[in-house]
Amino acid sequence: MNDRKTLVRFFTIADYEEEEIWLREQHKNGWKLVKTVVPCFYIFESCAPEDVVYRLDFKNNTEDRDYLQIFEDYGWEYFNSCMGWLYFRKPVSDTDTEQDSEIFSDDASRADMIEHIVKTRMLPLLVIFFACVLPNFFRSIEGGYPIANMFTILFTVLLLLYLYLFVHCGSKLRKLKKKYGGDR
Amino acid sequence: MDNKIKRIYVPMTESGFYILFCLQQPQHGYGISQLVRQMTGGDLVISAGTMYGTLSKMEKDGLIAFVREVEKRKLYQITALGAEILELEIRRIERLYKNSKGENANE
Which ipTM value was assigned to this complex? Predict the structure, then answer.
């Protein structure tokens, strides 16, 4: 039985490139990712240090068998899925060119993935925010009922958390989209 | 022909063109990528995610269709609509090529 360790790390939906780099570093240091547990736990197993590329694709659970078969044909090991993200890895020694270590080879498909994230993750969050968090925040400020203060604090925290996530993810995804053209 | 489809696919990306071109024969995703590597001397590599994404989009838009499964892999082939789009795209590229050589392409 190999050694295991669990790390806590929070990546938002816009930080997948940082997450890929971090996982690659871990593998170089002899820790390969076994699985992730919602919301932010990473379970690693000790292994021989190796340079292995990690790639994340966002499919929001719409992937099928054929999808995984294509990735397998390309030499990608699929080993984990979490909240719509699929985790792939491939040893650098198995790649001939730089493109072999990418799962997207043109900017149009990179931009497609970002659009998919925005549509299936950001928009529902926005709806919850305007339909639930915001009205309750105002109601708790106005409300004179006994536990109103507690709710005010709770909803203020939620509000700030939401605002932070929106600003962070929104600007990050916009930047990524710009980097990849995204005119398609 | 559906003008919307035409607007989306003409002109198309280089990857899109080669994928559609290769599907004049039944082929699966990885097989297409191998063919394209050969045809372009390794210059054009179509990655797994791009391949899958393009295939599913083209299938949804009716340019290609699923033919059969061989060893767990889905084989696709071009449809009549796909062939029409490919023809349009080839003519566009021919004109582009002729004009780039200074020939009159409008004959």
Answer: 0.89
pLDDT in tens, chain A (184 residues): 678 999 999 888 889 999 999 999 999 999 999 999 987 899 999 999 999 999 999 987 766 888 999 999 999 999 999 888 999 999 999 888 888 899 999 888 898 898 888 888 888 888 888 888 888 778 777 766 666 677 788 888 888 888 888 888 889 888 888 888 644 4
Task: Give, rounded to a whole angstrom, the gap between the first and last alpha carbons of chain A.
Answer: 48
Contact B49 A66 (CB under 8 A): no
Q: Which residues in B lie closer than 8 A to residue A69 (C-beta atoms)?
A: 29, 72-74
- Beta strand A77-82 with A52-58: parallel, antiparallel or unpaired? unpaired
Asked if A91 contacts A51 with a C-beta cutoff of 8 angstroms, the reply is yes
Place of tokens 């990306």: B13
User: Chain A residues within 8 A (CB-CB) of chain B?
Assistant: 57, 65-67, 69-71, 73-74, 76, 97, 99-100, 102-106, 108-109, 112-113, 184
pTM, two decimals, is: 0.86
Fold classification of B3-98 is: Arc Repressor Mutant, subunit A (1.10.10)
Going from the C-alpha of B59 to that of each of A47, B54, B72, the distances in angstroms are 41, 8, 18
Helix axes A107-117, B48-60, angle to 10 degrees: 70
Q: What single-letter DSSP state applies at residue B42?
A: T
Distance CA A76, CA A100 (A): 10
Nearest chain A Cα distance for residue B107, angstroms = 32
Contact B49 A57 (CB under 8 A): yes
What does the alpha-carbon distance between residue A147 and residue B74 come to, in Å, rounded to a whole number? Answer: 59
How many Å apart are CA A34 and CA A42, to the nearest integer?
Answer: 8
